[in-house]
Specification:
single chain; Rossmann fold; 17% strand
Length: 254
Amino acid sequence: MTTATTNVSVGLEPRLLGQTVVVIGGSAGIGLETGRLARSEGAEVVLTGRNPERLEQAARELSARSSAAFDADDAAGVKRFFDELPAPIDHVLIAAYTRRSYGPMLQRLPAEVGQGIGRRVTQVLEIARNAAPKMRPGGTLLLTGGSERKLSREAGITPAAFAVLPPFTAALALELAPVRVNLIQAGFVDTALATSYFADAEAVEARREELRATLPIGRVVGPADVAALAVHLMINTAVTGATYDIDGGQRLIA
């Protein structure tokens, strides 16, 4: 007697089906990759960005539900965007670039140093206070920051600005509950923004080669790596107030 076996392919339902993901800073880099992955998981995506032309192209590429061009540091623009955005929404990723102040602190005015440390916090607070009333319980506000910990004269207040974010994230998670709040702190991620800090293409490639040779993972972190973590944090409803480093192990060898 023989028994025939049949292979049955079971398709998994997209994990963000029926949900709405808003990406602040979604026209390029980490934001665009997260929007792309969220779409592949069934989400409707709303993109924002500073550059209208680049944003329009990204919105077409992802078949976004809608898009809006404004500066995420403009409180009035943030309020107007969320006022006009239909509810409900499920997840908000803040991937917008925040201008940083480099250089020795004593060469800057006290007000400039204060703004450099607090700019990301004030940006997030404006987004949070306007987004939260439209968010579903269990949704998540996802922050992004850098993982720079090395102190140097050239870095100035940058490490301090990043160090503020984990306790700020935890405190905001308590205030916004049951909306969840989490932080992704990335090292060097191979995006156009990251490479723009280097003097030329040779300097960029030298940095890539250095990372390939020294990082425990043996390669450079890309925007798709960060997007995968962002979507996981949207899906896993048990995580809030947490900080995740994604740097290929750079913090272990610094």
